[in-house]
Amino acid sequence: MRLVVLDMAGTTVADDGLVEQAFTAAAAALGVEAGSPEFDPMLAHVRATMGESKISVFRHLFGAEEKAQRANTAFEAAYHDLVDAGHCAALPGAAEAIAELRGQGRKVVLTTGFSRATQDRILDALGWRSVADLTLCPAEAGRGRPYPDLALTALLRTGTDSVRQIAVAGDTGYDMLTGTRAGAPVVAGVLTGAHDEARLRADGATHVLGSIAELPALLG
């Protein structure tokens, strides 16, 4: 495995409910209050599609592009406020795992379903600007998860020779679908985020790990 494509929130970065809190604020900005009959099905969709590009989620929920963009703007503002307030931390062993993977001679790419602005906010909060070889968001790859674009863009941008040299790791079913659709032979689910082992395996996980800290040993 010459290239390791890692998710951020829930995989290498603790989520601790930040996505749901930011979504609650975004829904309120569009007149959907927490506890209303409309809200619960929307939150269930957000949970089911964790890992997907956030603007795609809002397009599904709110339909009209103008509403989706308003929701996305409100989501990003709320998420940024949470990060700025100190509610952002690396998962235990994540930075060490990334360093070990790179020490093994592998390229490491961090990917997300967030916008570039939100991804950069997280990287800055953690001091992670140089932790990986490359960082990618959906807008830089064409489409976000569950499409293979993020993994394949990582392959192209790092000069990796073959999809058979890619390992993908994440905490959601959409991460698993991205890996399998990209042709990666190692698609590892981790149990530190949104989805359980059954969902990860149903969407194509070849391995399920307790956390990203176990990945260097698996590949080593």
UniProtKB/TrEMBL annotation:
Q: Does the keyword Hydrolase apply?
A: yes
Query: Which cellular component appears as one GO term in the record?
Result: cytosol
Listed Pfam families: Hydrolase (PF00702)
Q: Is Cytoplasm tagged as a keyword? A: no
Biological process terms from the Gene Ontology for this record are: DNA repair
The molecular function GO annotations come to: phosphoglycolate phosphatase activity
Domain of life of the native organism:
Bacteria
Cross-referenced InterPro entries: HAD-like_hydrolase_sf (IPR050155), HAD-like_sf (IPR036412), HAD_sf (IPR023214), PhnX-like (IPR022468)
Which keywords does this Swiss-Prot/TrEMBL entry list? Hydrolase
Read off the PANTHER family from this record: PHOSPHOGLYCOLATE PHOSPHATASE (PTHR43434), PHOSPHONOACETALDEHYDE HYDROLASE (PTHR43434:SF19)
Q: Name it.
A: Phosphonatase-like hydrolase
Which organism is this entry from?
Kitasatospora xanthocidica
Lineage, highest ranks first: Bacteria, Bacillati, Actinomycetota, Actinomycetes, Kitasatosporales
